[in-house]
Design brief:
Layout (H helix, E strand, L loop, with lengths): L1 H12 L1 H9 L11 H21 L9 H11 L3 H28 L8 H23 L4 H15 L5 H11 L2 H30 L6
Helix pairs in contact: 3-5, 4-5, 5-6, 6-9, 7-8
Length: about 210
């Protein structure tokens, strides 16, 4: 039965040929240093799945945000697990991406012809940082409030544009807007950057260590 279903899917999608091509791609030796990009992608997928689950419970309102999260964690059988997976997964994702960046810099894998690999990777890192920042704000508890206050004060120290950005952020910030940015704008941007990044990796291959 499974064989028949597999044949039916392969006839229409060609997944066996695609899998064969993937297995045939060359991968350099010393593979441990090349795992962090794939680990980061796996964590991103977990973040997306747990985030979609939490969408069914979260209320983007200053007075209801924390209550909705607490209700999900306490009343739903999987709520606490998915929330903690999402929360600690974000920290782990940042660690794996930093390790991936350090590995690329150490091996000088950003040089010609992989400049666009590096550039798209840097933008992905910035998007992940913004995802972390907006995610911290969504519960709108004391931690989120003071994190927001510290970030705004830090932006104010930037030369030339700091004061303008501070006033702009204070004028436009709402929990609902932070929520939309976190669940729509930034994930779409990350997905587009990931697609481009993998196209470049497929085109140029994985860089050998020096």
């Amino acid at each position: 039965m499974i064989s028949k279903v597999s044949d039916w899917l392969n006839e229409r999608t060609g997944f066996r040929e695609q899998a064969r091509l993937k297995r045939g791609q060359a991968v350099p030796a010393h593979m441990y240093f090349y795992c962090f990009g794939g680990i980061s992608l796996f964590i991103i997928l977990l973040q997306a799945l747990t985030g979609i689950y939490m969408l069914f419970f979260y209320t983007p309102h200053p007075e209801l945000a924390l209550k909705s999260i607490e209700a999900m964690s306490n009343d739903d059988s999987l709520g606490g697990l998915f929330r903690n997976m999402h929360r600690w997964g974000a920290t782990l994702l940042l660690a794996t991406i930093i390790t991936h960046v350090v590995t690329v810099v150490y091996q000088k894998a950003y040089r010609k012809p992989r400049e666009l690999n590096w550039t798209s990777g840097v933008f992905q890192f910035l998007v992940v940082v913004l995802l972390l920042a907006t995610g911290i704000l969504l519960p709108w508890d004391w931690r989120a409030y003071w994190a927001f206050a510290l970030w705004v004060d830090y932006v104010d120290t930037w030369p030339f544009i700091g004061d303008f950005l501070k006033n702009f952020i204070l004028d436009v910030f709402t929990i609902n807007r932070a929520f939309i940015i976190h669940v729509m704008v930034l994930p779409i941007a990350l997905a587009l950057l990931l697609r481009f990044h993998f196209k470049m990796v497929k085109r140029h291959g994985i860089s050998e260590p020096l």
